[in-house]
Amino acid sequence: MSSDVVLHEESTAAATATATATTTDQERRKASSDVESSNHAHPKGSGDDWMVILQLAFQSLGVVYGDLGTSPLYVYPSIFPDGIKDNDDILGALSLIIYTITLLPLIKYVCFVLRANDNGNGGTFALYSLICRYAKVGLIPSQEVEDRQVSTYQLELPNNRMLRASKVKSFLENSNFAKTFLLFATMLGTSMLIGDGVLTPCISVLSAVGGIKGATSAMTEDRIVWISVVILILLFMVQRFGTDKVGYTFAPIICVWFFLISGIGIYNFIKYDPSVIKALNPMYIIYYFMRNKKKAWISLGGCVLSITGTEALFADLGHFSVKSIQISMCTLIYPAVVLSYVGQSSYLRENNLAVSEAFYKSIPVIASQALISGTFSIIQQSLALGCFPRVKVVHTSAKYKGQVYVPEINYLLMLACVFVTLGFKDTVKIGNAYGIAVVFVMCLTSAYLVLVMIILWKTHILFIFAYILIIGSVELAYLSSVLYKFSEGGYLPLAFALFLVSIMYTWNYVYRKKYYFELNHKISSVKVHRVIAETNSRRLPGMAIFYSELVHGIPPIFEHYIANVPALHSILVFVSVKSLPISKVPVDERFLFRRVLPKNLLVFRCVVRYGYTDVRNEQEPFESLLIERLKNFIKEDHVMGLAQLGDNDEPAQNIRLIGDGDEIVNEEEEGGGADREIEALDRATEAGVVHLVGEHDVVAAKGASIGKRILIDYGYSFLKRNLRQSNEVFDIPHKKMLKVGMIYEL
Fold this sequence. Notes:
Blueprint: E1 5-6, H1 12-27, H2 50-61, H3 66-70, H4 75-79, H5 88-112, H6 124-134, H7 163-174, H8 176-210, H9 221-237, H10 242-271, H11 283-292, H12 294-303, H13 312-315, H14 322-350, H15 369-384, E2 394-395, E3 404-405, H16 407-424, H17 427-457, H18 461-483, H19 491-520, H20 525-534, E4 539-548, H21 557-564, E5 568-579, E6 591-596, E7 603-610, H22 622-645, E8 655-658, E9 663-666, H23 673-687, E10 689-699, H24 706-721, H25 726-729, E11 737-745
């Protein structure tokens, strides 16, 4: 028996039987709150294969950590823009850097945030999806009971369910403001992270190329800028080769880089001033603030640059795995970066005037890769959840399914990087902008993690308070500092984020309005029966597949089609495409079939469920897979019908008595009902399959406000005209496709 879920709209017994079967299958699949991506995004069994984990750990060096690795290039010049006034300030700054790197990247992300992955996928949308699964905070009413039967949907929860978890969950579910705020915050955080992906390449490449200026006077500022632009363009051009190849290309380089900076750090520590080891005492942070007061607070904006790229540990998780990130971070990255700052501090204690050139060697490009890859993953997630216009997502590795490339986004990022580089021309203002994007996303991640702790993990309240007090206070202090430099370039990520949020909100707003329009104008089963009865004499050989996003009921496009083409195919399937708030839906659990009764109509409804990282058109032809699953459904449907008949006292129409009535023979057991329907399905597919796709023109309803008209008639229409159509997303052959036009007044 296939694990496709079977459900009759008129039969609760059938639904119960299938739910039991699926739940039993689900119980065999163990899931927990810290599921490895290697168990889901990578081949089965690779979670226990340490060779695969070590390969991913090595590959992650070339993708995830470049920004952390090159941050020593510009941190101290940003902390001391006016020079070093007191030699002990170096100890205070070093102590700040060490404890910042320890608290945020190491403890917060490696120990806690990575555990909050969504079946191996990270990022703001992954956390939002995780919350959506356990609290009904989605704004589209497409939830079904059967969704929770998907094996990857529900994680294993702790047994000690606490009252505060249910209270928080109830508040989120009953407050429209909370639902809207969560979605808006997710969009804003995602936009900030994408903005981070623009600023990372700019500051890294500009800083690295700027180091050449000290070696030759021929290197002018304009030449530095144009060389940086060329390097940036080359960087984005190689993204199409995928994370796998790019990672293996950069990994050896950056591995050597980390060994070099740690070795140089040890050398400087021994040669210049080993007493900087005193910075391990956090009291030097207090002394630093007592001496410098407001200037010390402002310098936090420079200190935060030491953890730039930290969010990439989580955002890039879908490309790798939890263990691989933890191994690479703890064994190489953290000690190498700390040693680099220790060495710089030792050098500066003897050479105060060299603060602006304390570390002016870097390898261009490396740092830029981390958040570019993360941006591709985030766009894929937001696309599936209806929060971003349709774009092409290319899976670049057959071995590691989480590694994706989005061509349109790649070239938009490239143009944005070029414009920022040409516009700002130096790293000071870019650094100010950079800090705001980094700290804002970190604060949002912490807020979502607290919700995960309360609702999912049922963490002890004292531990939650400790997390907020320690991690939250540190991040808020950094946020207040970077906001101080808002007018000095800090406005850039906010402006960029607001632009992206406007696109995402416009698309999501109309997406929701369209769904509610279809829901309010859906066709009842009784009306479908009547329409088909009226056109029964005009049933054409073949199969028609109607596409919509409506999960509950028949979409209004069906009635519109019948009004203009008064003939129907012999078999009708209404396909609803639905994205679940999980990363992956197993193929054998993807199709949820229902039948429109009576059976002789041969009309079916099918909900096709995808996770936000699932491939929709590259693994197998959608049409053949749907037909195969429909045949399985028909077989199971008739078997379940027989099971119900066994509980009845009287025989039904498909039971006939033989002889004196002592023996009961079922026609379906003789191959009657199921075989006949499958034969009819085979004849229909041989006659031809037609895919009917709705071509909806969306307009604002009469009497709508000016803002609503601008949003729908201009904003959404512009996005729709310039982006991919639904048939391209599902790879529907043009020869088999028929578009049905219809106007939705929202």
